Amino acid sequence: MLPLRRILLFAAGCGSLLLATASPAHAYIDPGTGSYFFQMLIAGFLGAGAAIAMFWRRIVSFFSRSRDDSDEQPSAAGEQTHAD
Amino acid sequence: MSALASGQRSADTARVPGSFRDPAGFLFRRDGVLYRQVDRSHAAAYDQGKSSGLYDSLVGSGRLIPHDEVHVPGADPERAHRVLRPEEVAFISYPYEWCFGQLRDAALLTLDVQRTALDHGMSLRDASAYNVQFHRGRPVIIDTLSFEPIRSELPWIAYGQFCRHFLAPLALMAYRDVRLGRLLRVHIDGVPLELASTILPRRARWRPGIGLHIHQHSKAQRRAAARPRTAKGGRFSGRALVGLVESLQRAVRNLEWRPSGSNWIDYYERAASYSGEGAEHKRELVRGMLTELRPATVWDLGANVGVFGRIAAEAGATVVCFESDDACVEASYRRTKEAQERAVLPLVLDLANPSPGLGWGGSERESLTERGPADVVLALALVHHLAVGNNVPLEMIAGYLSQLGETLLVEFVPKDDPKVQLLLASRDDVFPSYTSEGFEQAFSSWFAVERAERIRDSARTLYLMRRRPGDHG
After folding, report:
1. Tell me, what's the ipTM?
2. B257 and B180 in contact (C-beta within 8 Å)?
3. Which residues of chain B are within 8 Å of residue A48 when distances are taken between CB atoms?
4. Cβ of A49 and B243 within 8 Å?
5. pLDDT tens per residue across span B416-467
6. Largest interatomic CA distance in chain A
7. What letters, b where the CB count within 10 A reaches 16 and e where it falls short, cover B254-281?
8. Which of residues 202-261 of B touch A (CB under 8 A)?
9. Model's pTM, two decimal places?
10. How confident is the model at residue A14 (pLDDT cuts 50, 70, 90)?
């Protein structure tokens, strides 16, 4: 291979190595920090989801009470809802 | 409180090796009894757990391990607020030994407990899978000190850990391959979200719970690492805490795995290793031997779906069924739930590569041998897999089994048996000493043979052996 091509290939190789290692300079920050900020980001969305879920449960249990044979338990612990 | 009466540290007091990270307290043993010291730093939280009714609610519903407050000195009395004596779990198992269903139930329990905690003004400080144990057939939280008062306006501190310990491995098992559960052995604090993101198939990120709590969550973690900031703006309402739990509950519930395509799951029906009469005779023999022995603890090695382990449970033993095929363990676990069995714990384990000691110093999580020995070990239709299938010399198999239990029920499957022939079909027969004489001789170094019974209609022999006294690890 001509010296010039060899040099260019070497430079390209070094360049791609640099790109590959250009990831978090502060990677020792534990993932907890990211989880914290992520939750703040989606707080509104989650809160709305919970409000809708509670509202939906009230509607469902209201209609269930009007039927005698309902075995629906309005439990707070995780029912399937439509909001996500 | 007189819990602090004596400042003496008894020579028989030893901290449990894996219990050191928690500033709120730690486990220790004294004279063989397990205690949990509650440090003064956690006093307010512990007292609130009681006064709020949270502990009563969780213990009453079988979701938290019960404990008594005892008036004994702590292992570190200057720091002690209370000393608790928790009920002991019969066999400690780890998340990397659980089948899909067990991990999923442990995840749902954690979220359910968090939801109840929120109702009582408290919240889980951590959501580690190691806080869950299977006790009398059901998952329970064993870390009584894991609760703290809700931190006003702040998000859930355990969210990241929950996603790593539970959501990521479950998603990997459901969407990629069930064997990815073993990744928890390598990643002792849960599967990193970025790793899970990479491995999961594209279709997984379109599932709302997964896309949000794994992929987006992971991206946010990487962004935070690249551009660190300390300002903590905004507020995280109580409703958002509830919404978070409910969102995670939906995400976990939507993850399912049905065992299919396993070579082992319908083995007993398909394989015809025994005639009807032979199978019945083997069951009779095992039942008879166990009824005579009346062991307290039994380990069923290579348990498949746990047929013989359950015979041991009927004879009054507490049983652990070890099996390397996930589908079999899943089926066995489902059965423990359907039949409400309290004495059987099925676990995933490859006997040729059993759980080693892990974590800090290699002693945070105990190896299999450290959690034994059992009174009786069942090694039925197993040894030929190790000796022929895995090339382990019979003497070494015997030596290892003698570490695991005092009494051994072991089945010898001779070379001309169709199953061994199958193993030899793809191997050279380099097993000249794999004969019944060779077998008996190899095992006699470690065990005294008490009984040998030929199984009817078969060339297989069932042995009852007792470990010889001497140097046993």
Report:
1. 0.86
2. no
3. 243
4. yes
5. 999 999 999 999 999 999 999 999 999 999 999 999 999 999 999 999 999 9
6. 89
7. bbebebeeeebbebeeeeebbeeebbeb
8. 208-209, 212, 216-217, 220-226, 228, 232-237, 239-240, 242-247, 249-250, 253
9. 0.88
10. low
